[in-house]
Amino acid sequence: MSADHGKCHCGQIEWQVKLEDRAHILCHCDTCKKLGGGAYSLNQIVPKENLQITKGKLNTYTYHGDSGKPVNCYYCPNCTTHIYHHQNSGPGASWELACPFALEVGSLAPKLSRPVQKFIILIRWSKTVMGDKIVIRTILLDQGKSLKAGAEIFGKDRLSWVKEVAQTFEVLPPS
Description:
The radius of gyration is 21 Å and the shape is globular. The longest helix has 7 residues, at about 30-35. The chain contains one helix and eleven strands, in the order βββαββββββββ. A hairpin with a 5-residue loop joins strand 6 and strand 7 (about 70-75). Strands 3, 4, 6, 7, 8, 9, 10 and 11 form an eight-stranded mixed sheet that branches. Strands 1-2-5 form a three-stranded antiparallel sheet, with no helix packed on it. The protein starts with a strand and ends in a 22-residue tail after the last strand. The protein has a domain at about 5-90 and about 125-155: Metal Binding Protein, Guanine Nucleotide Exchange Factor, Chain A, CATH 2.170.150. Mean pLDDT is about 80; it is low at about 90-130. By secondary structure, it is mostly beta strands. This is CENP-V/GFA domain-containing protein.
């Protein structure tokens, strides 16, 4: 499987991605329409390990998708082109660590000493709906115009004047 090259509108961010299928998935959800300013977005779902950012550093923000769950959006900080998205399902696991040091008032660094007080540091992370998979914007690839439509998702939100061009699912295909 060869890698496709992509870049944002201004060229500040570039990447390589290995697609699992040579087709777009058209998404008609209201969020994609608002983010992209069009009738749908062109995407593909791939393992995160298939994406390699080769130039620049992405910014991120979180919004809530159709499911109500948080979605992390990764975009160019200059032109705001959305490169990929990753959906969370909510809280995952927590770890508590007891730290055997005291903090001096006014100090940013802990002073190693005999434990005066037990500090608990809570570390949390989120499980993801998609596991290690991400939604990559396929129209941003150098060969994006040559890809055909493979499927349509969130057909329930399709604008009435947009014609169906591929197999359509009301929300998502069955797992």
